[in-house]
TrEMBL record:
It comes from the Eukaryota. It is a multi-pass membrane protein. The keyword Transmembrane applies. Residues 37-74 form the ABC transporter family G domain. This is ABC transporter family G domain-containing protein. GO terms for molecular function: ABC-type transporter activity. Keywords: Membrane, Transmembrane, Transmembrane helix, Transport. It comes from Euroglyphus maynei. Gene3D superfamilies: P-loop containing nucleotide triphosphate hydrolases. Its main location: membrane. It holds the Pfam family ABC2_membrane_7.
Length: 489
């Protein structure tokens, strides 16, 4: 619904604007309602339907522009003359008072015509019990591609400083970890023979104290480097999505509401009769959001993996596995951020409170304190929905597992996490389990986020009840005899 789109324009520019609106309405099969003061004949003829008000707010004509001449013959004998323009003549009548006899004749004729059209429609059509089905936009790659190009322009024009700051924060965090922690801790394998360890419990030497210190430092390094990195990803994804979901809801709402217009202006012009729900589907928007957020981050994630990879001297080629689990975990956590934004409805205060709360729960069930296998069974169940847990477990397996210890030995950290025995035969199964659970978390949070977004943006409307309400409204509808004396031409 557009109020006076040609206001302040000359006749040529006004014709260009209305012609553009006409093309948009016909090409996209939507309805545009516009109001215009004193249109020219060329502009007037571009509209499909015209609803004209005279002084006082009474309707003097309703129908296509081509029928105006025939309509005016009922009150004027000059319409057969070639030098008479129907549009200008109708505008002259609309500027007369509602008490004028010619205006009253036009009003009566328009009312009869409208009622006759309603009667013809009721006779030539069959009522549908559930009403007319809503014309919805479906998912299409074309819509997603258009949204991607639009978002790219949005990033180039506005978001690039914010994204640059976040990406710089990732890299500074990884560089800080690389500098603060002693790289010599990676040479401590933490392998012990359970029998020898039991016999030498009382003989704690300086070497064993140093070994325990290095193991504790390595444990903190992995948990901090992976867990806090995912926290930064969670913050970025949640805050960014909370801002963008506002624009999405506004654009989706614009196409979802039936356009209605009523005001004091003299002319209402209808360009089409159909309207679609939303400018694009919810799936197209979320599909676009997933990829435009992830693709620019992949190079940053690869650089971050390079910064925190201090294990190459003892685990050659471990970089690729670390990078893979960082990207996989970050993708899953992004879904959590989207879910928080949808649940909190984009409220910044609620988001700021919920993000640390969710991260605290994730870290609590990620072996940072008590190993998961020793927690209450309810907390063990909750830990299955914590991407941080499985990423940290995978990092420990990559660093200390897979025959780094000799037979009959166990690795201390893996043993406490219940992922180790003296034969080292289940490391592949444990690593595969972490991969499967990260994929599960990714899909689970993606689907839940998409489902909630669909529910939020596409409110369920019972079609049969809606059709009954419309029918009852028309049955009880009475013609209005209200005159608005203050309404000027």
């Amino acid at each position: 619904c557009i109020d006076e789109p040609t206001s302040g324009l000359d006749s040529s520019s006004a014709q260009v604007v209305i012609s553009c609106l006409r093309q948009v309405a016909h090409h996209h099969n939507i309805c545009i309602i516009s109001s215009i003061h004193q249109p020219t004949a060329e502009v007037f003829s571009l509209f499909d339907q015209v609803y004209m008000l005279a002084k006082g707010g009474v309707c003097v004509y309703s129908g296509p522009p081509s029928d105006i001449r025939q309509h005016l013959t009922k009150v004027s004998d000059r319409m057969d003359q070639d030098d008479i323009f129907p549009v200008e003549e109708l505008i002259k009548y609309s500027c007369l008072s509602y008490e004028d006899s010619s205006v009253q004749d036009l009003v009566a004729s328009s009312e009869v015509q409208i009622l006759s059209q309603d009667l013809i429609v009721s006779e030539e059509t069959t009522p549908v019990m559930d009403g007319i089905p809503t014309n919805r936009n479906r998912f299409s790659m074309k819509s997603a591609w258009v949204l991607m190009k639009r978002y790219t322009l949005y990033v180039r024009g506005y978001l690039w400083p914010i994204l640059g700051l976040m990406y710089g924060l990732y890299l500074c965090f990884g560089l800080t970890l690389n500098i603060l922690f002693d790289h010599n801790m990676i040479f401590t394998d933490g392998c012990v023979n359970l029998e020898d360890e039991f016999n030498s419990t009382c003989n704690q030497t300086q070497d064993k104290e140093d070994e325990d210190f290095h193991l504790e430092a390595s444990f903190i390094y992995v948990c901090f480097g992976y867990g806090m990195f995912l926290f930064l990803v969670l913050v970025q994804s949640a805050i960014m999505f909370s801002k963008e979901i506002v624009f999405f809801c506004n654009e989706h709402r614009n196409g979802k509401k039936i356009l209605q217009f009523s005001s004091k202006i003299m002319l209402l012009l209808l360009l089409s009769i159909y309207i679609k729900l939303g400018w694009y589907s919810t799936g197209a928007f979320y599909f676009m959001k997933i990829w435009v957020e992830l693709l620019p981050q992949i190079p940053i994630f690869l650089i971050y993996a390079y910064l925190i990879d201090i294990y190459e001297p003892v685990r050659s080629g471990i970089y690729f596995s670390i990078a893979f689990y960082i990207i996989l975990g970050a993708t899953a956590v992004q879904s959590v951020g989207h879910l928080l934004s949808i649940v909190t409805l984009g409220e910044f205060v609620a988001l700021v409170i919920s993000i640390p709360g969710i991260e605290a729960i994730f870290l609590m069930v990620s072996n940072l304190g008590t190993p998961v296998k020793r927690l209450h069974y309810i907390l063990q169940f909750i830990s299955n929905f914590a991407p941080t847990r499985f990423g940290i477990e995978a990092m420990f397996l990559l660093q200390y597992g897979f025959d780094r210890c000799r037979p009959k030995e166990v690795q201390k950290i893996l043993f406490k996490l219940k992922m180790e025995n003296d034969e080292h035969e289940h490391h592949t199964s444990f690593l595969l389990y972490t991969f499967i659970m990260l994929i599960f978390n990714l899909l689970f949070y993606r689907l839940i986020s998409l489902l909630l977004l669909v529910i939020k943006s596409n409110h369920y409307d019972h079609r049969r009840k809606r059709a009954q309400k419309i029918a009852n409204f028309h049955k009880n509808l009475q013609p209005s005899n209200v005159i608005i004396p203050g309404l000027q031409c």
